[in-house]
Amino acid sequence: MNTRRKNRLYLALIVLVGLGLATTLVMYALRSNIDLFYTPSEILQGKGKDHELPFVGQRLRIGGMVMPGSVKRDDKTLEVHFKIYDARGAIAVTYYGILPDLFREGQGVVAQGVMQADNVVMAKQVLAKHDEKYVPPEVEDAMKDNHTGPASAYVPPAKGNGQS
User: Fold this and answer.
1) Are 96 and 113 in contact (CB under 8 A)?
2) For the chain, what are the domain ranges?
3) Burial class (CB in 10 A: 0-12, 13-18, 19+), 107
4) 128 and which of 4, 103, 105, 158 could share a cystine (Cβ 3.0–4.6 Å)?
5) Where does residue 20 rank: exposed (0-12), middle (13-18), buried (19+ CB within 10 A)?
6) Could you tell me which of 151, 152, 135 has the C-alpha nearest to residue 143?
7) Which InterPro entries match (predicted)?
8) Is the distance from CB of 95 to CB of 112 less than 8 angstroms?
9) HEC per residue, the chain
10) CA 100, CA 97: separation in Å to the nearest integer?
11) 54-103 pLDDT, tens digit each
12) What does the radius of gyration of the chain's CA atoms come to, in whole angstroms?
């Protein structure tokens, strides 16, 4: 009877260790697939109370407005460079591919990609709004938060200012 109790105890320990190991492996796998959402000002100044900055190689999503005059297309490839801005800053984005039909300057977008050196995001996907009034909820909330901040708001260049 004593042996039977020990066998049950060993079996329970093995099951608990197995569940712990499986949970750890699942959490590790999910951690590497999470794309955190940032606004341009959060990339430049940090996010949250600890002012945590994204690191080079981190997968992320950045949302904001396409800066007027910032879209530069390579004539020989599908590479496009543009800037996404909010009330406090602008971040350069590089994308290789065909942009959505609704992508244009002055409109809200979300770019999903990887943080590169010098605060440049190498986008793997660019999502654009789908009608005149739509702004992605994350972008709208972040823009509201940024507009309630200090008076030193970032103002993008006006549309049609001669920049190309």
Assistant:
1) no
2) 1-33, 36-147
3) middle
4) 103
5) exposed
6) 135
7) CcmE, CcmE-like_sf, NA-bd_OB-fold
8) no
9) CHHHHHHHHHHHHHHHHHHHHHHHHHHHHHHCCCCEEECHHHHHHCECCCCECCCCCCEEEEEEEECCCCCEECCCCCEEEEEEEECCEEEEEEEECCCCCCCCCCCEEEEEEEEEHHHEEEEEEEEECCCCCCCCHHHHHHHHHHHCCCCCCCCCCCCCCCCC
10) 10
11) 888 888 999 999 999 999 999 899 999 999 998 888 999 999 999 988 89
12) 23
Cα–Cα distances (Å) from 127 to 21, 86, 99, 114, in that order, read 37, 17, 8, 15
| Binding region for heme | 130, 134
Give me the pLDDT at residue 162, please: 44
Angle at alpha carbon of residue 53, lines to 47 and 59, rounded to 5°: 100
Amino acid in the structure at residue 7: N
Find out whether 114 and 58 touch, Cβ atoms under 8 Å.
yes
Which residue in the block uniquely carries the two structure tokens 């190991």? 21
Amino acid at 154: Y
pLDDT on residue 11: 93
Q: For the whole model, what pTM was predicted? A: 0.63
